[in-house]
Specification:
The complex is a heterodimer of chains A (about 450) and B (about 70). Chain A has about 450 residues and is of the alpha/beta class. Chain A contains 13 helices and 20 strands. In chain A, the strands form five sheets. Chain A has an eight-stranded mixed sheet with strand order 4-3-5-6-7-8-9-13. Chain A has a four-stranded antiparallel sheet with strand order 10-11-12-14. In chain A, strands 19-18-17-20 form a four-stranded mixed sheet. In chain A, α2 packs across α3. The termini of chain A are far apart. The longest helix of chain B has 22 residues. With about 70 residues, chain B is mostly helical. In chain B, about 10% of the residues are buried. The chains are: A alpha/beta (about 450), B mainly alpha (about 70). At the A-B interface, loops of A face α2 of B.
């Protein structure tokens, strides 16, 4: 066939009416499947007085079908001793995983062979748009463990036909040497770890730019969508492209950036339906400028269906993006703007830690390595922002003041700030731990609205 | 590769040979669809389907090709 810049033009450029009709049909079939095969879904739907045949319109989906949430699956997981929301028997299972446990509890996941293959397709849309082809190669900076996000990137590379280069079981310095030797087209990792590799390279007297890497790819953290971090990565690695991916463990990386970087990612509408709900109302958010909690239905995972599933990620959804890429799929500017289930109230001001993370990237002289420590003193929540200085920082006290002033100007509240020396904070190979909530269980807030 | 050519007899059971013939025809059809794929995604999906189909053919004593891309 002729060269095409779109991985799957028929759906990737279809108009909204066509896409929405397809979504509704898939959702109706999936609800029926889940009701017939998953005890959890049958229980939830019966409790809500809903039968699959009742879900015929978008209004039915939005207002009659109950939300699902991680606690539903965790409770079912505990009761079954295996997996929550199961809809397929063990003979269909191929591999176990679990989520990263960001919210404190691991959700066990099991995938069938088809699902692992299908999940791999999710990556191809963005990579193909950037001009990545089967002649290219992808280097993985990780040891393969239970975190599904990394595995699914690997499946994506396989699906696209890339040459895979594994840096598993190696030290950071050895990985840098191997990257320079193998000259992969793409190096994949979290933004934090890729910056760490660049630091290690300098320490070892190596120039990672000599590797000729064309693209850095990954996700799991906000860095790939933060302008300062993006430019820093591009400079340190000498790459042309930075590829951002957004996802949740339950549905994998369902958002991918296109070649025309517009500050966010497109929803991969071949593999999920995505919409946002008002944080207080639970009603669908209509306006492209409004923020809401991201709710998804996955078309990838049938062993454990995730239907109208609350991600608790705060997003803004542009249903009609027009930034020149030609994709018609929804766009999430800024990717994840915060977490609906993790809000801190500092002197009466509601603050989402992700907002603080994004603002740190605006201040020159500060590195991408930081920690947010939340404590409660005399009944008041406090947040200490610890961030590393980079080589451009001449005076850490002055940098602290600049960051404190920037946070005050943007958030309207004074946070405690401590700028520490470079490489004082720990480095993580996978998802970096940023948040340290030192409050007791009873002092932590509970999610805002109910189950529907 | 000429996949329309009838595979040579290998002494396998008649029903095995018949299934092999049917799969060879199926592969021919698959390859035509691959040529006419409307997107790289479809083209790649059919390429991988061809690999799986070729594994099936290899179980049936198919020797016209050693591997799908030959």
């Amino acid at each position: 066939m002729q060269e095409d810049r779109y991985w799957n033009r028929p759906s990737q450029t279809a108009n909204r009416e066509v896409l929405d009709a397809l979504h509704l049909e898939r959702i109706r079939l999936l609800v029926g499947w889940a009701y017939e095969h998953s005890a959890l879904h049958r229980r939830l739907y019966d409790a809500a007085g809903v039968k699959p045949g009742d879900i015929r319109t978008w209004d039915d989906y939005y207002h009659r079908l109950p939300f699902t949430d991680k606690p539903d699956y965790l409770a079912d997981q505990t009761a079954s001793g295996t997996f929550g929301g199961l809809a397929l028997p063990p003979e269909s299972w191929q591999q176990y995983f679990h989520t990263t446990g960001t919210t404190g509890h691991f959700l066990n996941e099991v995938f069938t062979q088809y699902e692992m293959h299908k999940a791999g397709t999710q990556y191809c849309y963005g990579l193909w748009d950037f001009g990545i082809r089967p002649r290219d190669s992808m280097y993985f900076c990780f040891d393969f463990g239970m975190w599904i996000g990394l595995w699914s990137f690997y499946w994506g590379a396989r699906n696209l036909g890339l040459t895979i280069q594994s840096g598993g079981g190696m030290s950071a310095a050895d990985r840098v040497r191997q990257i320079i030797e193998l000259r992969p087209t793409i190096v994949t990792g979290t933004p934090t770890y890729l910056l760490h590799l660049a630091e290690v390279a300098k320490r070892e007297g190596l120039d990672v730019r000599l590797a000729g890497v064309k693209m850095l790819a990954g996700g799991g953290e906000a860095g790939f969508s933060t302008p300062v971090t993006r430019s820093r990565l591009a400079e340190e690695w000498g790459v042309e492209h930075i590829y951002d991916a957004y996802g949740i463990g339950e549905a994998l990386f369902i958002g991918q950036s296109c070649a025309q970087w517009a500050g966010g990612v497109h929803v991969i509408e071949d593999v999920c339906h995505s919409y946002a709900i008002g944080l207080a109302s639970g009603e669908p958010v209509i306006g492209a400028d409004e923020v809401g909690e991201h709710v998804i239905t996955s078309y990838t995972h049938f062993a454990q269906p995730f239907i109208k599933y609350r991600t608790h990620d705060i997003v803004r959804i542009d249903p009609h993006p027009d930034h020149g890429c030609g994709w018609t799929w929804k766009h999430l500017p800024g990717v994840v703007l915060g977490r609906s289930d993790f809000m801190v109230t500092i002197r009466g001001v509601n603050i989402y830690p992700t907002a603080v993370e994004n603002l740190i990237g605006d201040v020159t002289g500060l590195a991408n390595h930081y920690e947010l420590h939340i404590t409660r003193v005399d009944g008041m929540d406090r947040m200490l922002v610890k961030v590393e200085a980079d080589e451009r920082c001449r005076d850490r006290t002055e940098a602290s003041e600049r960051l404190r002033g920037h946070l005050r100007a943007q958030l309207g509240v004074n946070l405690e700030v401590e700028v520490v020396e470079s490489e004082r904070l720990p480095r993580y190979e996978l998802k970096t731990r940023r948040l340290f909530d030192h409050r007791s269980e009873g002092e932590r807030p509970v999610a805002a609205f109910g189950s529907h | 590769m000429d996949i329309e050519r009838k595979p040579e007899s290998s002494g396998l059971a008649p029903e095995t040979m018949l299934q092999r013939d049917r799969l060879v025809q199926l592969r021919q059809r698959l390859r035509e669809e691959r040529t006419n794929a409307v997107s790289p995604a479809i083209e790649r999906a059919l390429e991988m389907a061809d690999m799986h189909l070729f594994v099936g053919l290899s179980y049936l004593g198919y020797t016209e090709q050693l591997f799908p891309e030959e």
